[in-house]
Structures are given as C-alpha cells and as structure tokens.
C-alpha cells in the first residue's frame, strides 16, 4: 500500500500505475503468482476484469521466505526475464533487505540494494520515498546478532 496509494491514485504522487496484490499471471506457458505486480497505465489503461492477466507486468515484487527464495531467485526470475519484465524487487523481511533488479541486455543486474529501516528511493518508483522500516515486523530481528541466543 505504500506504493499503491501514490502511484495508483496520483493524489500527492506521480500516479500512472496499477499495483495488484497477488495477481495470477499467464506468461506464455507459465503460470505465476507474484506477491505484487505493477503495470504502467500507458501499457494497460484499465485493469482487465478477468481471472488472470497475460500482459507481462512492468514491475514485480517477490517477498522471500525460506520455502520460496530459491525458486524466486532462479526459475521465476528466468520466466519474468523471458516475458520482458524490466524490474523485479526481492524483499527479504528476515534480513530486512530490498534488492532492486533491472533487466539489461538480457540479464538481471542489481540496480540497488537497501538494508535496514531508513528511507529509500527505489526504481522504478524513485519519485516517492519508501520507508523500509514500514515493511518489517517489529519483532523480526534484522541480523543474527539481534536474535536472543540464550
């Protein structure tokens, strides 16, 4: 919702995007459900009233967990790249990190990496400051040293 409000509605923000929570994507023969996906309104003027979306998003966000991280970082990135998705965010709540991947010359390139709780501007949403601390659960330690090891 931190991104959705300014980018979808444009009130006090840049607008121009559809941000969808858990959309079912049919990208060629592959079916994926990213945690979040976004389309520029210039490419998709209205959200289709369908069960799944076949148009590749302009941005995808995957929340990494121990059970999904390997697939998110390998198979899904390959599929997103082949479909033409230009931006992927990998968010790791356990480590409190945000990795911004950009598709360049057929490869995923780390555009930016953020850690902690401070404010960041992350492409393709650099027009709005996002506070990383708003993404983390207060009870989650950000490093092994913060864990109670008694």
Automatic annotation (TrEMBL):
Pfam families documented for this protein: Uma2
Bilayer-crossing regions: none
Descriptive protein name: Putative restriction endonuclease domain-containing protein
Annotated Putative restriction endonuclease domain residues: 31-122
Superkingdom field: Bacteria
Organism: Enhygromyxa salina
InterPro entries referenced in this protein's UniProt entry, alphabetically: Nuclease_put_TT1808, Restrct_endonuc-II-like, Uma2
